[in-house]
Write a structure and sequence with these properties.
Length: 238
């Protein structure tokens, strides 16, 4: 995997320094000239690194004052609790889906890696939005015998809801895997971020009452826009 551009590497170093408290809210970051001397980089690279931090809401660039830290961490734009089955469904209902493509599934890594026959599946590609911000990009495989039309999907809150309403097939079991990834030059623009951005990849498979797979999704969420949260309660003994 190719290394991220130098300005992104410098931005990540500064992010880490802010998160660790090396630079606290109200502190000044090194100037562009100082960053050039410290990291042996060009003025253009230093400027782009600071731009990324500004766009992330971590710093503000003030005339005659310099670059000031304004937040210790980047705010997450979408938080999904991992409390149980309904929480997994709720994410899809809360994050609005914009469909980019809906067509026969290609015989590629996701399809063949799951042992599926491409001829039996359709593929949907889209973006997940929280208001006006993209919180993730998604790819969904839908079994042909229970595949709604594009209009039917858009008329329901989720693809799973559309399948249940139209075909009477409900998700009884959902399996989920979460993995770290880096967005490449193809995926990053779809997510509205820079190539090399860290992201979370979630893969979910939906099974009906017979245990048969009828829906599978793979989504990528830029790390600065998405948080999984969990809450555990300790049971008290009488």
């Amino acid at each position: 995997m190719a290394a991220a551009p130098l300005y992104q590497q410098i931005a990540q170093l500064l992010r880490a320094a802010i998160a660790s408290g090396t630079y606290k809210v109200g502190d000044l970051l090194p100037t562009e000239q100082e960053l050039c001397a410290i990291h042996n980089i060009s003025r253009h690279t230093a400027r782009d690194a600071l731009r990324l931090l500004t766009e992330a809401g971590l710093v503000a660039r003030r005339r005659r004052a310099g670059t000031v830290v304004t937040a210790p961490t980047e705010p997450a734009l979408f938080v999904q609790p991992l409390g149980g089955f309904q929480d997994l469904l709720q994410y899809a209902r809360d994050a609005r889906l914009t469909i980019l493509a809906y067509e026969p599934a290609p015989p590629d890594g996701m399809v063949l890696g799951m042992g599926l026959d491409p001829a039996g599946w359709l593929e949907l590609r889209g973006q997940r939005w929280d208001g006006t911000t993209i919180v993730g990009i998604t790819r969904v495989l839908i079994r042909r015998d229970c595949a709604p039309t594009r209009a039917e999907i858009e008329a329901h809150r989720t693809i799973a809801d559309a399948i249940e309403a139209l075909f009477g097939i409900s998700a009884i079991r959902i399996d989920q895997q979460i993995k770290a990834m880096i967005l490449d030059a193809f995926l990053a623009p779809l997510a509205g971020c820079e190539p090399g951005t860290a992201a979370l990849r979630t893969r979910r498979t939906y099974h009906d009452a017979k245990g048969e797979l009828f829906l599978a999704s793979e989504s990528a969420h830029p790390a600065d826009r998405f948080v999984y949260s969990m809450s555990f309660n300790r049971e008290r003994s009488e």
